[in-house]
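Hi, here's the filled form for the chain we discussed.

Project: internal
Contact: R.S.
Residues: 159
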Amino acid sequence: MNSTRLRILGAVVLLAGLVVLIERLWVTDTEAIAAEIAGSRAALLAGDVDGAARILSDRFTWERGGRAQAVASVRGFLKEFPIHEARGSDLESVAFEESGEGVARVDWVLFSKGTGAGLDRMPIRLFLRFAKEPEGWRVVKLERWQWGAEALLGPPEGR
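And the returned structure, exactly as it came back:
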């Protein structure tokens, strides 16, 4: 091979390497939100409620209060329904609004370790409002949630 061909080949290899590096480093907002949800799910499966709650903003709200009430509610739920698996989509969809916030839809089926109550799986659908904060994307509001038959049979609403 002559030197011109080697230079061209070297430039192509260098360019391909740069493209791969940029792809690895460039994380879209959707990918970042999906990673936050996946991390929260992994923490829940490990029984780490505090770790799972890292996804919640300090200004988090929902119909039953704020962040502290949500964490207490999850702890109570896990006592009644200890989960060992969560299947489904960590991020079914996300719609970003002009405000910069995004509403994500999460669809999971939770599988219990066995409660003795004849309940071994529970479908759940969450609509989570995310805002970008200094720590990353955080849930600022639980817009709506459905569980059981309602999550399966309810209209496939979402944004």
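Let me know if anything looks off before we file it.
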